[in-house]
Specification:
By secondary structure, the chain is of the alpha/beta class. It has a domain of 175 residues: NAD(P)-binding Rossmann-like Domain (Rossmann fold, 3-Layer(aba) Sandwich). It contains 12 helices and 9 strands. Helix 5 links the parallel strand 5 and strand 6. The longest helix has 15 residues. The N and C termini lie far apart (39 Å). It comes from Gordonia terrae. This is NAD(P)-dependent oxidoreductase.
Length: 284
């Protein structure tokens, strides 16, 4: 089996490589693709095949993917910038004859109101139209996205945002990456979509209480209005476009768009997702 990973030099890609190696995939059977030459050199030192990739160059990407059986496409590109490179990747994979395309999408991508999901939905549609047998891993939220909140708790004893009572069913990147490794190395996943999320949905009052236990010091959560949050972000030096995006994202989360506890992730990886408190301990 030959497996290529686009986005191999990122955090999720690194965890996916570790998960594949843990499942006894030979390093030489993994082709790590990315743009970070230093990180690619590290991976080459572990015995992986590596190559830089320019997704704007469809022909070169297709040549690089020739002979690859399975491709893990980690959702490259920032918000509003991801669809074109992903479309190019799908075209290149078609040309190269890739037999299985695994894409890291967003939770409930076809139906969610989550501001981040529109390009994921569009990417899924491009992949489906290509005819390449595919699996959609609709990843929920990463627990690591909230390390900055933990640092605020550690430094100031206060966490503040406009999410309020909204719940988030997070899991670690390692858990999501392990699911990708399972799908890439076991049969029966082509044509399926998995709604992946953590086993437990928490809110920020609970997050603060957990942080307080881990830090052994008081931590308070302050629920802000959207207007107050925007003022704080502006005072911190963020531009209006970033503030607007963050406000919309937090409103989505407050509405429960990331609260689903589907059980798909734990089922795929064969064990519970890492609890919030355990992840916090790794941040100490």
């Amino acid at each position: 089996m030959t497996i290529a990973i686009i986005g191999a030099t990122g955090q999720l890609g690194g965890h996916a490589i570790n998960a594949l190696l843990a499942r006894d995939v030979a390093p030489a059977d993994i082709l790590a693709l990315g743009r970070n030459s230093d990180r690619l050199a590290e991976l080459a030192g572990r015995g992986l095949r590596t190559a830089t990739v320019d997704l704007d160059d469809i022909a070169a990407t297709a040549a690089t993917l020739t002979g690859i059986e399975s491709l893990l496409l980690i959702s490259v590109g920032g918000p509003g910038q991801g669809l074109e490179p992903r479309r190019n990747t799908v075209t290149a994979a078609q040309t190269a004859g890739v037999q299985h395309l695994v894409y890291t999408s967003a939770l409930r991508a076809p139906t969610t109101t989550l501001v981040l999901a529109a390009e994921h939905k569009a990417t899924e549609e491009v992949i489906t139209a290509s005819g390449i047998p595919a699996t959609f891993l609709r990843n929920g939220w990463y627990t690591e996205n909230h390390e900055t909140d933990f640092r605020a708790a550690q430094q100031r004893g206060v966490i503040a945002n406009s999410i309020g009572a909204g719940r988030i069913a997070t899991a670690t990147r390692a858990d999501y990456a392990e699911a990708a490794a399972v799908v890439l190395t076991t049969p029966g996943h082509q044509g399926k979509a998995y709604e992946l999320s953590g086993d437990t949905a928490w809110n920020f009052t609970e997050f603060a209480a957990t942080a307080s236990d881990i830090l052994d010091s008081p931590v308070r959560y302050d629920a802000l209005s959207s207007a107050d949050e925007q003022e704080q972000l502006r005072a911190a030096g963020l531009d209006d476009a970033t503030i607007g995006f963050m406000s919309l994202l937090n409103a989505n989360i407050a509405d429960g768009t990331l609260a689903d506890t589907t059980g798909d992730l734990a089922t795929l990886i064969g064990h519970p997702t890492q609890p919030l408190a355990d992840t916090m301990r790794t941040w100490l």
